[in-house]
Amino acid sequence: MTSQVSSPAEQADGADEAVVGEQRTPADAGGTAAQGEKEVRKLDRVIIRFAGDSGDGMQLTGDRFTSETASFGNDLSTLPNFPAEIRAPAGTLPGVSSFQLHFADHDILTPGDAPNVLVAMNPAALKANIGDVPRGAEIIINTDEFTKRPMAKVGYETSPLDDGSLDAYSVHPVPLTTLTVEALKDFGLSRKEAERSKNMFALGLLSWMYHRPTEGTENFLRQKFAKKPDIAEANVAAFRAGWNFGETTEDFAVSYEVAPATRAFPPGTYRNISGNLALSYGLVAASQQADLPLYLGSYPITPASDILHELSKHKNFGVRTFQAEDEIAGIGAALGAAFGGALAVTTTSGPGVALKSETIGLAVSLELPLLIVDIQRGGPSTGLPTKTEQADLLQAMYGRNGEAPVPVVAPRTPADCFDAALDAARIALTYRTPVFLLSDGYLANGSEPWRVPDVEELPDLRTRFATGPNHTLADGTEVFWPYKRDPETLARPWAVPGTPGLEHRIGGIEKQDGTGNISYDPANHDFMVRTRQAKIDGIEVPDLDVDDPDGARTLVIGWGSTYGPITAAVRRLRIAGVPIAQAHLRHLNPFPRNLGEVLKRYDKVVVPEMNLGQLAMLLRAKYLVDAQSYNQVNGMPFKAEQLAKVLKEAIND
Q: Considering only CA atoms, which of 491, 341, 362, 514 is closest in space to residue 430?
């Protein structure tokens, strides 16, 4: 869903009128009370968490609320959280699925530390999430599920609705299931079928509370269930019933306005986008800018599978997707496509990287462009498939036999995954090397507004294939040497198989410099190892930008998805008058050339990571600085308040 954003000056006038215009009832909603009869409070931001069973549709509910919020023009950030099981046991704590959305009238960076509103569809959802809810927050509870058996299943001996344990919160008891079934009584559905629409009732209620647009959701439901129009209309009816309930009930006496973020974005066309979708679009854009076909060889694995799903839709752009029988076959096919002249990609997560490691080493030896997209998740082994982590950095750096250096690029936000994909493709094509692109589950599933770029803004990634001989022998014979290098980039020529006169040998055994023939010569091996390392070390990456407006003595440095929480924490400290500098790395191999000089400017360097200190270890080893680690490996992103406290303690230490 896209929306046009004019300049802040143009939008300043009439912004409130735009909000009022969007708050009316859905088409044919039939509300009986005028909106003006209830108090409307203006807020600058809200954090909402939808929580329920995996089968309650919380991810769909959150996604629809997010889409309407994006179309309204708010800045936003999301955090989907769900179990790894396809259908975890109903009503249990391990089976709880949630979706948190933070939206505001200004620039925001994280899904928020704690929800202002919790929608709990059952006792398990309440118990799993109540610890994150601050005193005074609103809790909307589906009272129909708070019967003896569901409560006992999660350890409630008495009902939290009656025992006073929720007195610190503003609780709205709503019989969501009963109201949904009543609203759909004329549709001829069984009770079980009607109950499935209770998430749409909840979505309608929240849409009324926060004046969200409704037309997009109704159109979505009709498209989603186009083959079952009765089900589509039942969901629309449930959605409208929820909206009308908020409009007419006495329990919800206040609704809220969060104006569009008119000053948060430069002018342009925006859409809500997840990290995996942005990365997919970035890969397609890279292939178009390189004028090369895009080939994806992949094996499904959480949380990377969505990239395979998305790219399979874009055959019109020359994209070919191959779902292989295993991880090794996926990267093998991709490397073959690279040899054949395609922009080749393989997608996976940490366990798949381990299986692909031998072929990545082969790609290093063959010196062919190949993108290895690692959407990191909790490990080791199968670990936590649906939870986030940053623990594959050392695997990407060193997880191969022998000296096999590979560039590493890491996006910092969901939208930045688009630009990172283009950057990784630039490096792979220019320097003829495999490249790691390290995203993670937080970025992959989270979403935020993304400005759709003009094609003219995208980099020119076109590369030249070898077309003829490139070396003259002593006797004057012109020949093709597959390992004769570009003096600036040290990249070898890229010769498409079948080009007359450019036949050459490939394989994993060491090559002779220049000719590419098999060589066991010790001096040649030493030279080739050092040359491959020099090629990676010489990759052109931008200098590291440092945000230090106050001349701080402490620097916080991060990489990947920690950008949002770190930046939010830094903002909090600066508002409180605490000076602190911030830098964030996109390029992890090679590091920016000015990184050592930057680190030595500060008395203290703090490195927050969702691992046990992998970047900090690399910084300590390479630059001999006393980098202090702050680590978290609980499968969840950092909270801004948590980091702000840690950073303040580091400054005062």
A: 491
Which phi and psi (to 5°) does residue 594 adopt? -95, 5
Angle at CA of residue 437, ends 436 and 440, nearest 5°: 125
Handedness of CA 127, 128, 133, 139 (dihedral sign): negative
Tokens of 38: 């209830």
**What pLDDT does 505 receive?**
85
Cα distances (Å, whole numbers) of residue 540 to 279, 424, 428, 477, 546: 22, 12, 12, 35, 19
Residue 337: φ, ψ to 5°: -65, -35
Measured in whole angstroms, the distance separating CA 283 from the mean position of its chain's CA atoms is 15
Quick check: 130 and 118 in contact, CB under 8 A? yes
Lookup: tokens for 485: 């290098």
Exposure class string for 583-600: b at 16+ Cβ within 10 A, else e: bbbbbbbbbbeebeebbe
Closest CA to 451 of 293, 653, 278, 241: 278
The CB density around residue 521, as the number of other CB atoms within 10 Å, is: 12
How far is Cα 81 from Cα 388, in angstroms, rounded to an integer?
A: 10
Nearest-angstrom CA–CA distance, 243 and 237: 10
This prediction's pTM: 0.93
- By the 10 Å C-beta count (0-12 exposed, 13-18 middle, 19+ buried), 573 is classed as buried
Query: Which phi and psi (to 5°) does residue 89 adopt?
Result: -55, 130
How far is 177 from 56, CA to CA, in rounded Å? Answer: 11
| Tokens linked to 300 | 């499904």
Model confidence pLDDT, tens digit, residues 637-648: 999 999 999 999
pLDDT at residue 18 greater than cutoff 70: no
pLDDT tops 90 at residue 451: yes
Phi, psi for residue 382 in degrees, rounded to 5: -65, -35
When the pLDDT of each residue in the chain is averaged and rounded to a whole number, the result is 93
